[in-house]
Amino acid sequence: MDALHLLYYHAAAGSLDKASAAVRERNQALYEEALSLARILCKYLPEGDPEKTLACSLARGAARASLDSWL
Q: Are 8 and 42 contacting, i.e. CB atoms less than 8 angstroms apart?
């Protein structure tokens, strides 16, 4: 399973913060790649596509977690 799909699962399950930290600790490059792909998919997939919903959830969750770490 790749990092993007692992994070999708946790975004849908409501446990994204914990999973994001685990993936980031294990491999920062894979985490960043997954977030970049999620942002691209969120922007370009058509409305109503279930993957768009997951990608946008992941992108928003990562942005929120990143903001929280600064506060």
A: no
pLDDT score recorded for residue 65: 60
Q: Is 61 exposed, middle or buried (0-12, 13-18, 19+ CB in 10 A)?
A: buried
| Alpha-carbon distances of 14 from 7, 9, 44, 45, 47, rounded to whole Å | 10, 9, 24, 22, 22
Q: Which residues have C-beta within 8 Å of that of residue 55, sequence separation ≥ 6?
A: 8, 37, 38, 39, 41, 42, 45
Is residue 71 predicted with pLDDT exceeding 60?
A: no
Q: At 52, is the secondary structure helix, strand, or coil?
A: helix
Domain positions in the chain are 3-70
pLDDT at residue 62, as a whole number: 74
Mean pLDDT, the chain, whole residue set? 85
